[in-house]
């Protein structure tokens, strides 16, 4: 194995825009076919070099991998969901990478309560394995199921299969009992598929740039070439999404950009399947919809109502809207879930998620402003809450809760009585005891005075909090995505070695509402980077760590954040994990032939406009690598990544190797059998965590056995 850093050859390539010429000596590393021998040889050389430099700590990597895997109850079953005449659930098996999709008959048609449980004894109905992903994955380096949809009768199952990580799925329909294929597979679909009765499927396909652009209707037994296109979105900044209402009476097709969305609906009960407009295309207006009784319920965001309002309109008169929940400056409506007699509203306030449930009048009665809501209580200072599939014709809402020290927990909550029942808390093996850990929430002042929330966990018997403790600080800060402090079984291999782990909830994310996002995008993008730096400085000032022991990590757009802060303040950090990073931002945003580019202009700006060009040039990581000292750095990529092309991190590493003025580690690992979300197997993913953590320990000189 090579112990000398690979040196990418330099081939001069000029990129000119607005009279400005950039010289890109590593442009040749981009190969859309992923087949150029010179490119593949360079990637292999990087992988070989990384393996060589990490060979002396391979035993540490193996030890950490064993620890992480050892916390998992490998043979496990999730909480069954009662759907029609069956309970549906997923099972994992010892030593197996993938899940089994199972079902079991419901013995009786009794009323669903929070105490409902699937019988499993000797007298219980037999279990039936509908689909075993382990069998399907045989012979594939990558395997992922993007959707698993049971037909209304329960007789058929449609599922999407990706076998190379590019997120282009092949849709199969099988008989739920025999497992035999029904009809021919449908190629090139997204993970959004829905049944429109037992004989029809609605699905979405993508254009050559991986943009979901067509919604199609397929009749079982017919050829895909005969499928009807229900709608073609020709505007390349918009992408299509599809979902069914909780009532299962309507399908909704949503065309959305980063700032605007509009909705079509399809009445499943009608013999003629066609889309009708529910909300029109109006720039800056964003809508999401569902259905109950004779009303559509719509979450609507606009420039004035930036945190959204919730309205309802009669299904026969969509222009007549009643406000159910008005816009509030301090509370963002994130989502909602409809039931026969209730609505559950998922909101964010002060950076934390919350759920409020309301009773609804009987179907057909007049609707008014929601009142008398009951908020569900949570105990941790910082936590994550996610909706789970629930049953429309019940009073039970199911949700998943976790925190940095509380394992994922599934609750059923009775919206009539307020009774909450813990259905399952994930078993964490290896001697895990949540009482050994402290979870905190702190605030750092940004350069403009804005208070930035930080979520923190550490093991109270291992840290000194005097500045001597190592820390891993993570961040993301883009797309209005909320990186809530959920449970990670992997991170305890660092925390149990005395690390403090923190998440900086910087602007550009959605944690503090819509304005939080808007203040970290376009011409305010640098707030994301300076917020992260402010959080790092605050944590050092508060004695959680020092710059000699501060490690940082981020993936995808979080990798852009890592690249930017490494260029801006390399002196602050000891080591960095830069995962599948969007680091060649300016070049990518100037090239509309690259997948997702045009749709991203509303996030980063269109650099064909001079103001955006120079602003992006001032922070785009590849364009700002300098002749300076950098911390230890690990960069990762997936060869088949459809979101961030492998060439971006490859170019970033090549330029760092050319210019950096230090002897610190610079490692690049490009996985051949991986997409944007790394490898597909549940244990393979753990191996990546183990490798990353080992790199940090090596950088810190902590490569002793725990």
Folded structure, characterized:
This protein has 706 residues and is α+β, with helices and mostly antiparallel strands. Among the domains are: 14-70 and 436-700, Rossmann fold (3-Layer(aba) Sandwich); 285-427, 7 Propeller (Methylamine Dehydrogenase, Chain H), CATH 2.130.10.120. 18% of the residues lie in helices and 33% in strands. The strands form eight sheets. Strands 31-32-34-33-35-36-37-38 form an eight-stranded mixed beta sheet, sandwiched between helices. A seven-stranded antiparallel beta sheet has the order 8-9-10-11-12-13-14, with no helix packed on it. The longest helix has 19 residues, at 682-700. It starts with 13 loop residues before the first strand and ends in a 6-residue tail after the last helix.
């Amino acid at each position: 194995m090579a112990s000398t850093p690979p040196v990418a050859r330099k081939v001069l390539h000029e990129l000119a825009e607005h009279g400005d010429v950039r010289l890109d000596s590593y442009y040749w590393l981009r190969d859309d076919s992923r087949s150029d021998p010179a490119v593949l040889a360079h990637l292999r050389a990087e992988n070989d070099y990384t393996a060589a430099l990490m060979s002396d700590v391979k035993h540490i990597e193996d030890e950490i991998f064993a620890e992480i895997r050892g916390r998992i109850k490998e043979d496990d079953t999730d909480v069954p969901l009662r759907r029609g005449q069956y309970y549906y659930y997923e099972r994992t098996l010892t030593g197996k990478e993938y899940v089994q999709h199972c079902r079991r008959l419901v013995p009786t048609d009794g009323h669903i309560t929070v105490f409902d449980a699937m019988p499993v004894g000797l007298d219980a109905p037999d279990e039936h394995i509908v689909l075993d992903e382990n069998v399907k994955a045989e012979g594939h380096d990558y395997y992922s199921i993007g959707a698993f949809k049971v037909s209304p009768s329960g007789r058929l199952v449609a599922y999407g299969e990706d076998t190379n990580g590019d997120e282009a799925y092949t849709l199969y329909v099988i008989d739920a009992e025999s497992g035999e294929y029904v009809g021919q597979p449908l190629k090139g679909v997204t993970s959004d598929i829905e049944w429109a009765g037992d004989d029809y499927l609605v699905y979405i396909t993508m254009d050559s740039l991986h943009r979901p652009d067509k919604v199609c209707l397929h009749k079982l037994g017919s050829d895909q070439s005969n499928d009807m296109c229900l709608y073609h979105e020709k505007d390349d900044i918009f992408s299509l999404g599809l979902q069914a209402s909780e009532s299962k009476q309507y399908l909704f097709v949503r065309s959305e950009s980063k700032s605007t969305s509009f909705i079509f609906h399809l009445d499943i009960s009608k013999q003629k399947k066609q889309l009708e407009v529910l909300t029109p295309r109006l720039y800056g207006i964003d809508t999401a919809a569902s259905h109950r009784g004779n009303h559509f319920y719509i979450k609507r965001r606009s420039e004035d109502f930036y945190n959204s309002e919730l309205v309802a309109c009669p299904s026969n008169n969509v222009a007549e809207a009643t406000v159910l929940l008005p816009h509030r400056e301090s509370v963002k409506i994130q989502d909602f879930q409809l039931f026969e007699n209730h609505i559950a509203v998922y909101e964010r306030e002060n950076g934390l998620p919350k759920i409020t449930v309301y009773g609804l009048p009987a179907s057909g009665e007049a609707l008014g402003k929601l009142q008398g809501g009951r908020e569900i209580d949570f105990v941790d200072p910082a936590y994550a809450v996610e909706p789970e599939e629930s049953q429309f014709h019940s009073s039970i809402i199911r949700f998943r809760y976790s925190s940095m020290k509380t394992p994922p927990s599934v609750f059923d909550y009775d919206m009539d009585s307020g009774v909450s029942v813990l259905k399952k808390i994930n078993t964490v093996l290896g001697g895990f005891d949540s009482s050994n850990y402290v979870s905190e929430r702190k605030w750092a002042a940004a350069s403009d005075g804005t208070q930035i929330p930080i979520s923190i966990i550490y093991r109270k018997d291992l840290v000194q909090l005097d500045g001597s403790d190592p820390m891993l600080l993570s961040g993301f800060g883009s797309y209005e995505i909320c990186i809530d402090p959920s449970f990670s079984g992997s991170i305890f291999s660092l925390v149990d070695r005395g690390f403090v782990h923190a998440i900086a909830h910087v602007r550009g994310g959605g944690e503090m509402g819509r304005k939080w996002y808007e203040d970290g995008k376009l011409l305010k993008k640098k707030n994301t980077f300076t917020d992260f730096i402010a959080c790092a400085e605050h944590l050092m000032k508060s004695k959680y760590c020092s710059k000699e022991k501060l490690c940082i990590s981020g993936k995808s757009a979080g990798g852009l954040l890592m690249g930017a802060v490494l260029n801006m303040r390399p002196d602050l950090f000891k080591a960095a994990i830069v995962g599948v990073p969007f680091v060649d931002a300016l070049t990518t945003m100037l090239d509309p032939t690259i997948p997702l580019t045009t749709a991203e202009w509303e996030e980063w700006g269109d650099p064909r406009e001079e103001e955006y060009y120079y602003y992006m040039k001032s922070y785009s990581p590849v364009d700002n690598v300098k002749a300076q000292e950098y911390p230890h750095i690990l960069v990762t990529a997936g060869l088949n990544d459809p979101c961030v092309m492998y060439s971006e991190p490859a170019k970033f590493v090549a330029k760092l190797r050319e210019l950096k003025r230090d002897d610190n580690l610079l490692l690049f690992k490009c996985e051949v059998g991986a997409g944007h979300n790394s490898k597909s197997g549940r244990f393979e993913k753990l191996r990546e965590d183990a490798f990353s953590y080992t790199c940090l320990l090596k950088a810190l000189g902590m490569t002793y056995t725990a």
